[in-house]
Structure to design on (171 residues):
């Protein structure tokens, strides 16, 4: 569930924090550090298109694709031949959350959602990183590299595809 919330937040955060951005693409590294200071890092690529489409492709340490729109999150985990389909939380008011983001120093902003404080670091007009503590008190830090914006992106990239024999779980 922590990944679902994070992905939804990031998808919406990308567009809400950047003026006049219609699409966003970047490589990312997501590090999660637990209370014992053990860190696991994920790498991958995100492609997002306004108003509400995103595809997170995780490459390491496991391969998986996460497709998002305003209705569903679909997680395709090829290594275990499984698909998880979840409905998007309907009461998520990201516009209000972003409107209340506060600049705490040059290029650093904070915003709150459901008792979680998110720290956003920007470099120029682009988001460079996002950090927060998840519901398990893990420290989550996501760094974006090779960002591209307002590039033409085909909508078919956001249509989940997977073999029919995969197990499908609906939450």
């Amino acid at each position: 569930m922590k990944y679902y919330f994070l992905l939804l937040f990031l998808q919406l955060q990308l567009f809400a924090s950047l003026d006049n951005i219609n699409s966003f693409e970047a490589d990312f590294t997501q590090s999660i550090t637990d209370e014992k200071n053990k860190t696991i890092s994920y790498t991958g690529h995100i492609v997002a298109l306004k108003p509400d489409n995103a595809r997170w492709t995780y490459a390491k340490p496991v391969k998986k694709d996460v497709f998002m729109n305003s209705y569903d999150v679909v997680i395709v985990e090829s290594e275990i031949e499984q698909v998880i389909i979840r409905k998007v939380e309907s009461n998520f008011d990201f516009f209000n959350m972003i409107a209340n983001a506060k600049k705490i120093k040059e290029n650093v902003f904070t915003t709150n959602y459901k008792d979680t404080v998110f720290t956003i670091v920007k470099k120029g007009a682009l988001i460079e990183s996002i950090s927060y503590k998840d519901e398990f008190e893990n420290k989550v830090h996501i760094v974006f590299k090779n960002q591209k914006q307002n590039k033409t992106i085909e909508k078919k990239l956001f249509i989940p595809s997977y073999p029919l024999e995969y197990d499908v779980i609906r939450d």
